[in-house]
Design a protein that fits this description.
- The protein has helices spanning about 1-10, 70-85, 135-150, 190-200, 230-240, 270-285, 290-295, 305-320, 380-405, 420-430, 445-450, 475-485, and strands spanning about 15, 25, 30-35, 40-50, 90-95, 110, 125, 155, 165-170, 170-180, 180-185, 205-210, 215, 215-220, 225-230, 325-330, 335-345, 355-360, 365-375, 415-420, 455-460, 490.
- By secondary structure, the protein is of the alpha+beta class.
- The strands form five sheets. It has a six-stranded antiparallel β-sheet, sandwiched between helices. A five-stranded antiparallel β-sheet has the order 13-14-15-16-22. A five-stranded mixed β-sheet has the order 19-18-17-20-21.
- Helix 9 (about 380-405) crosses helix 10 (about 420-430).
- It is globular, with a radius of gyration of 25 Å.
- It starts with a helix and ends in a 10-residue tail after the last strand.
Length: about 500
C-alpha cells in the first residue's frame, strides 16, 4: 500500500485542497489481489487504489466514457498475418496505465484510507490525472495512448480503432491495444525493438516477451503455427460451479427443437444462471464450437427455467470433456477469404424468428464467426437464408477493409457458401419476384457486391455446410467433423519456447 501510495504521489496524481462547498466528492478504496501465472500458480501480490466511480455525476465530473477495445476478429486476423509473414509477435503491459492520462474534468476525491495527511485531515484530493475506477479513465487512457503513437508514425485503423498501423517503405508493424495489454508484431526484430524503446520512453512498460498469455488466453507455438487455449479459464468456471467430476458429453447441445421461454418451472437461482451464461460468452474466443449453445441459453437470462439450466449443465459437461481443445492458427496464405453461412428457418418456438450463423476463413485460418437470431420474421426459408448471406457479406466487407488498411489486399472475390439454391439465385438475379417484395431494400446490397465482383455466392451440399454448427444442434459424428473443420482440436506436440 505504501509503495502504491508513493507511486501516486510521485506521479502527481492529485493535490490536496480545502474542500469546496456544494461539490461532489467521490470515495476511494484499496483493492487487493493475487496475480497468477498461466498455469494457475501464484505469481505475486498486488494492491491498487481505486476511486468509486459509481458516485460520479454525468455532466458534472464525467462526460463521454466509451472506450474502444480490440475486436476478437481483429486479433485473429493480425495473428494470421504475422504467421504468414513469419513476423515476431511480442506482448507488453503498461504499468498503471490509467495514471498516465490527464483529466479534463474537475474531480474531487476523499483522501485514501490509512494515508490521511495529519496536517490537513479535512482536505480533499483534486485529481490531476486519471485513476482506476473513474468512469472516464479507460477513454482518457486510450486517447493518451493513441495521441502518442500517432507522433511516432502509427495511424489507427478505421475498421477497428484499437488497431494501430505503422508503415515506412517495406517496414510494417501492428499494435493491438486492449486497455493496458498490448500485442506488438513487426516485420523485423530491429523495428520491434525500436518501437518498444519509444513506448518505454513515454510509458512505464513491462516487457512480457514473446506472446504467451494474453487476456487469459494461453498462446503456444507449434511447428505449424499457434495454438490458442482458455483451458485455465474453462476449468475455473467448472470448478466454481462444483461440476469438476461430472461426466462429459460429445456435443454442447442436443438435436431436439430449440428451448422455449416457458419450458418448465422457474429456476431457483437466476443469479447463478446469469453468471454462468455470461462467463461462457468469453470462452467462445477460442471455442467457436460452443457459440450456438451459448447463444441459445443467453436468450433466457431475464427469466431462466429449470430446462434452461439443464442446457447450461450440458454445456459444462461438453467443456469438461474438451478442456484441452483450442483454436489453431496455421502458417497460411492470406490471399483468399472464404465463408460459410446457414440459417435455421423459424427455429425459435416462441417468436418463429430464424437463427443465422456464419464462419469466415482467411486462407486456412478461422478469423470470424457468429450465431445470431434474426431481427425480423422470414416468410420463407429462402428469405431466412438470404438474410444470412447478407450478414456474412457485411462482415466480409468489414474484413476486406481491415485487410486493406493493414496492406494485405485481397484480389479475389470473397466466396460465400450457402446450401439454399433460392438464396443463391436471389443474390445474382435483379428481377423483383412477388415473393421477395417484402424483403427490405438494404438486404439487396448483396446483389451489388456480386455484380461488382467482390463476392461470389456458391452452393455447398448440406453435408459440407460448416455453418450448420452455428445454427442448430447436430449429431455427434457431424458435429465433430465440423468442429475439426473449424480448426478446434487438441494441442499438438509443442516446440521449445513460444512466439
Amino acid at each position: 500500500m505504501t509503495d502504491e501510495y508513493n507511486a501516486l504521489i510521485d506521479n502527481k496524481t492529485w493535490e490536496l485542497v480545502p474542500r469546496p462547498s456544494g461539490i461532489n466528492v467521490i470515495r476511494s478504496m484499496w483493492i487487493f489481489a493475487h496475480k497468477e501465472n498461466s498455469d494457475g500458480s501464484f505469481a505475486r501480490y498486488k494492491v491498487r487504489l481505486v476511486s468509486d466511480g459509481k458516485t460520479q455525476q454525468v455532466g458534472i465530473d464525467c462526460g463521454e466514457t466509451f472506450s474502444p477495445v480490440v475486436k476478437p476478429a481483429t486479433i485473429h486476423t493480425v495473428l494470421s498475418l504475422a504467421l504468414s509473414k513469419a513476423c515476431p509477435i511480442h506482448q507488453l503491459n503498461v504499468k498503471n496505465a490509467f495514471l498516465h492520462s490527464d483529466l479534463k474534468e474537475t474531480i474531487y476525491m476523499h483522501q485514501p484510507l490509512g494515508f490521511r495527511d495529519p496536517n490537513h485531515p479535512h482536505h480533499v484530493c483534486l485529481l490531476k490525472k486519471s485513476l482506476y475506477g473513474l468512469k472516464q479513465s479507460p477513454r482518457a487512457w486510450y486517447t493518451r495512448f493513441a495521441d502518442y503513437v500517432s507522433t511516432i508514425g502509427f495511424t489507427h485503423s478505421r475498421s477497428d480503432n484499437s488497431l494501430f498501423i505503422y508503415r515506412r517503405g517495406s517496414s510494417l508493424a501492428y499494435i493491438l491495444l486492449y486497455v493496458n495489454d498490448i500485442i506488438l508484431t513487426a516485420s523485423s526484430d530491429a523495428l520491434r525493438r525500436s518501437i518498444m524503446t519509444m513506448l518505454s520512453s513515454e510509458f512505464a512498460m513491462k516487457d512480457l516477451g514473446p506472446l504467451s498469455y494474453f487476456l487469459g488466453i494461453v498462446v503456444k507455438r507449434h511447428s505449424g503455427g499457434l495454438f490458442l487455449s482458455q483451458r485455465k479459464y474453462a476449468a475455473e468456471i467448472i470448478e466454481r460451479d462444483v461440476m469438476s467430476s461430472c461426466k462429459s458429453t460429445s456435443t454442447p447441445v442436443d438435436a431436439k427443437p430449440n428451448l422455449s421461454a416457458a419450458a418448465g418451472a422457474p429456476y431457483e437461482d437466476p443469479t447463478r444462471y446469469r453468471s454462468l451464461a455470461g462467463a461462457f460468452q468469453y470462452l467462445t474466443f477460442t471455442k467457436p464450437d460452443i457459440t450456438y449453445a451459448i447463444q441459445q441459453v443467453c436468450f433466457f437470462m431475464h427469466d431462466p427455467r429449470v430446462e434452461h439450466m439443464n442446457a447450461i449443465k450440458r454445456i459444462i459437461r461438453y467443456i469438461q470433456g474438451t478442456l484441452d481443445y483450442g483454436l489453431h492458427l496455421y502458417h497460411s496464405s492470406t490471399s483468399t477469404l472464404v465463408s460459410y453461412t446457414d440459417a435455421d428457418w423459424g427455429g425459435c418456438p416462441d417468436t418463429r424468428r430464424s437463427t443465422s450463423g456464419y464462419c469466415m476463413f482467411l486462407g486456412s485460418n478461422l478469423v470470424s464467426w457468429s450465431a445470431k437470431r434474426q431481427a425480423t420474421l422470414s416468410r420463407s426459408s429462402a428469405e431466412a437464408e438470404y438474410r444470412g448471406v447478407a450478414n456474412v457479406v457485411s462482415e466480409s466487407c468489414w474484413l476486406r477493409n481491415l485487410l486493406l488498411e493493414v496492406h494485405c489486399l485481397i484480389q479475389k472475390a470473397t466466396l460465400v457458401y450457402c446450401d439454399n439454391i433460392s438464396a443463391i439465385y436471389l443474390s445474382g438475379n435483379s428481377v423483383q419476384h412477388q415473393r421477395t417484395k417484402h424483403i427490405e431494400i438494404n438486404i439487396h446490397f448483396v446483389r451489388e457486391k456480386v455484380a461488382r465482383g467482390h463476392v461470389r455466392v456458391c452452393h455447398v451440399p448440406s453435408r459440407y455446410q460448416i455453418a450448420d454448427i452455428f445454427t442448430k444442434g447436430l449429431p455427434s459424428v457431424l458435429f465433430e467433423d465440423f468442429r475439426d473443420s473449424l480448426s478446434v482440436r487438441r494441442p499438438p506436440a509443442m516446440t521449445a519456447g513460444v512466439c
